[in-house]
Amino acid sequence: MLYLKSNDNLLKGFVFGRSGYEIKGFYLHVFVQPLYLLDENINLTFGYKIKYDSKDFWEIDDKKDNTKLFIELEKAINKNSNDFLKIFDSPESFYKYYQNKCVNLRMVEAVVLSACYSLSEERFSLIDKYISILEKEDLSINWRKTLLEQARLLKLNITDEKKIKKDIT
To answer: Which residues of 123-137 are buried (b: 16+ CB within 10 A; e: fewer)?
Structure first.
């Protein structure tokens, strides 16, 4: 993993992962992850896989000169740092980028918490929408029920700026 030093409560970087299909292949992912989300792992939801020569994976051969590969990796990392990661300079930039791209509850949670953490005026309407979404879910599933309880608690404390940052982190 490579990551960028940051003071904005967002972990940004690149993860290298072994390919399950090609013995010499590996994946390169670029990601951003809010540090105020409860997660024990690096979450690649907020990012994407960087392709190489129209393939999903990169390939290294220990029997060949890999200089070209390393040059291409460096270019890809620099390009994606500039094109993607520089977008995210604050929790506010995170929620603004992802607010219309949510495809699951965890993404909505990240957007709502980012809006709250950045003290955006939109946090009030976003938390109401989030609670409404959660109330329509199957609450017999414990993690969904927990998300709803946490969202309701956050709504109670949403106007106290000091308490928001304490509750989120």
So the answer is: beebbeebbebbeee
- pLDDT digits over 69-115, tens only? 999 999 999 998 889 999 999 999 999 999 999 899 999 999 999 99
SS3 85: helix
Read off the pTM. 0.82
Contact 107, 101 (CB under 8 A): yes
Which residues contact residue 20 at a Cβ distance below 8 angstroms, ignoring those fewer than 6 apart?
none
Q: Three-state DSSP class for 102?
A: coil
Helix (H, G, I), strand (E, B) or coil at 158: coil
Residue 161 has a pLDDT of: 61
Q: Where do runs of H (alpha helix) occur along the chain?
A: 67-83, 91-98, 105-117, 123-135, 142-156, 161-168
Contact (Cβ atoms closer than 8 angstroms) between residue 72 and residue 60: no
Distance of CA 113 to CAs 44, 75, 99, 122, 160, Å? 18, 33, 11, 11, 14
Bridge partners of residue 28, in order along the sequence: 16, 50
Using the structure block, give the residue that is written with the tokens 């965890």. 106
Residues paired with residue 12 on neighbouring β-strands, in sequence order: 4, 32
Q: What tokens does 74 get?
A: 């460096």
Q: Tally the C-alpha atoms within 13 A of residue 26's C-alpha that lie toward its C-beta.
A: 13
